Amino acid sequence: MNDASNRIGENIKTLREQSGFTQSNIAKYLKVDQSLISKIEKNERSITSDMLDKLSALFGVIAESFIKESIPANRISFALRASEITEDDLETISAINRIALNSNFMTQLLGGAGVDR
Question: Which of 15, 26, 61, 114 has the greatest number of C-beta atoms within 10 Å?
Answer without folding.
Answer: 26
